[in-house]
């Protein structure tokens, strides 16, 4: 073929941006002309008046002609090999020299990559799809790849081509992946994909695998190098790899970064052991305030959480989302940490600093639905690609969002790899999967006739269940020692059982039943609690069916529900005492712990996503005292293995007495896994103190009062047991010994046998 015999319709397909493989026409092609081997070079430059082929090594230029179209340039060159040539392009009065993208013909995605992706098993597909700074033939640039199998053609838009989709048309592979290497661009470039369907409709889309997006309201993706950051958390990561988190203390501080504190506010108040505790002036609505950056949060949030003694930070969805006023659960950039708080590297810095301060990171992950925003995944390539076409399966009408098609291998691969991605590239320590029930049931929030049954006629979403098993199998295979937590509110069995037993593979499940029972119970007038003892005790009937996390989350302090302290009955003193009683019981009860920001100092108002927390309350002693209570409670929890090593094993818990509903008192024992240590917990859920309350205990000796939620430093009445009590040889509750205790009002006591003091006293 000579350059004069190329078919006009082929040229027109390039000019009209309708070609699925522009490499067939553009770039360099070896041909035979007059018995000689020569090269023909073709280029389409919509704004150019003249173009030359430049051979830098030979220092030669070859002018190109416009035979078929004013902006379609071509020429022939007699040379044995033609590699890394450049184009000199004249546009108006300006000239520029650049490498030709269509000279780099070899695809970067291998057949094996495409095979794994098409069967849903390319675990690190994010290293292939998306935008990746790379070097080909000594030329640096960015390689782009996007899955859009139903598109007629796909082009790249960006600052590098003045957002003109004609200039960088991509090539379609056999599996619907479009790709192109653009030389001489790099990190920081803004880009989108221009996608046309066969009807000619154009969609401008952010990169589904984009690692960073422009700050809202802009929506372009940004080329990012995720391997440039130098991590300093090697000790943390190695320790985690050899640790079973289910036998460790897990006390989670759940935080929404955008409303914890804004940059216009003063520093958060110091803890009670700090000096010069300031009064923090915070407006009721901080609409004009700037968000703290990830690096600023590292300086402010991490010391705060560390001083309070929490083991983990859980962040409401950190993935990119469009609306500041949302909680972050309508994700548009699954592979991009939100740019509200800084860059991808800034977020790495934040996590790195958390690990260096012995704080784990849990990120809320949302594979259950995605929004309809035009730049996102919805109708991505002009078809229902990521979502189901039938709204009876593909839409959550209550939320106004779309449902992923988990049965499509490439879609499940996109999500499963995304879960792995956050562990791999950002070193997170766990995910909390939001709204698992919405994934597991086809009729979730749907009326009859608005949903489709599965192949067996049931309402269970079998594809979603299998997808969750796949995700958990993958992430635990690569990263032992992590957490995968399900927010699942139904009776679906074996949520936190391993996948090889038929479970969904999570290692923790939020105990929604416990949460509802507790909040119902504590909202009652204490006199009525005697008729609802079952609220307190029922959780232990099913405690060992799953690995439970006890969570009092953001969901409980919004939509007119009041904050935790506002739910409590009585005057202010009783409200605060009830809060201490609730959380002390929570930390003594089997299960890992999660609580939402603001609960630790007794914020009265509901969580407002636009405002800061009410830090000004810490100028008042009762709120300072409540904060001290949480600091001591966390420290006690972390220091007593009996409170966490056997959360999910039957030997770890034993009722002493759960039937004293007349006094609304329960007592129980928590046992350590690796020693004979145990603690005794006694809870009085009414304002009525009891001066001689006897409980049975298994061993003789002196029981130290480790913790008293009614202590004076916490704002309590300071009733207690003068540091501890000796046992009496008076059998009770099926134990040979007993303790005569003073139970404080609305108080929780935690006692422990003092082995040394007992041995000295008994002469053994």
Automatic annotation (TrEMBL):
Residues 291-637 form the Glycosyl hydrolase family 13 catalytic domain. It is an enzyme of class 2 (transferase). Keywords: Carbohydrate metabolism, Glycogen biosynthesis, Glycogen metabolism, Glycosyltransferase, Transferase. GO terms for cellular component: cytosol. Pathway: Glycan biosynthesis; glycogen biosynthesis. One of its GO terms (molecular function) is cation binding. One of its GO terms (biological process) is glycogen biosynthetic process. Its EC number is 2.4.1.18. Pfam families: Alpha-amylase, Alpha-amylase_C, CBM_48, GlgB_N. Signal peptide: none annotated. HAMAP family: GlgB. Catalyzes the formation of the alpha-1,6-glucosidic linkages in glycogen by scission of a 1,4-alpha-linked oligosaccharide from growing alpha-1,4-glucan chains and the subsequent attachment of the oligosaccharide to the alpha-1,6 position. Monomer. Belongs to the glycosyl hydrolase 13 family. GlgB subfamily. This is 1,4-alpha-glucan branching enzyme GlgB. It comes from Halotia branconii CENA392.
